[in-house]
């Protein structure tokens, strides 16, 4: 899920507050957050394609940076621009490649060439599900949704590979975690980290910052139950916990 957007309020909050609200809270807060219908990765590719086709290069630059955070690789961006050159125009492709080189050119390694995640054998009673890799996890993760899109209470079986954790984040109505396999950690802001094992149940209250994920030597699977009103942003992603502190937990 996309990190909470504030660009509209930061730049236009005083001058055009309604536009700022629509940009930050509706476009990014509601539309971009519907990752069960389309991933942030795919939304970024589509958005970059549209902006390049229209020749809106200042906006394209910022969306290329967002695309990189959403897991789009240099190979994918180069292929997108090459493909669109035949439909949107050769000069637009040249301009887009300049921006792409600034954004992706310094990367020595391409995520497309990264090692494929090893399947997790012990992932509890539910299927492993689909990859959930992206900007909000430090490694590979998978999710098997257990409720239909739009349900008043979302439930998903989430599996983290060993050492993978997510960002600090909050939920507007709290979140219930029920551990079904492996071993991991959960920490609420102001509290000590707590070890999680199968059978453990944790409830994080509304608006309280927390993070969770797998131990260094074990994968972890939990069912995450998250209440949400229709169209409501169910999570506000923030920064990652300190990697050294997480590694020390074991």
From TrEMBL:
Residues 17-102 form the Carboxymuconolactone decarboxylase-like domain. Keywords: Lyase. Pfam families: CMD, Cupin_2. It comes from the Bacteria. CDD domains: cupin_HNL-like (cd02233). Its EC number is 4.1.1.44. This is 4-carboxymuconolactone decarboxylase. It comes from Bifidobacterium actinocoloniiforme DSM 22766.
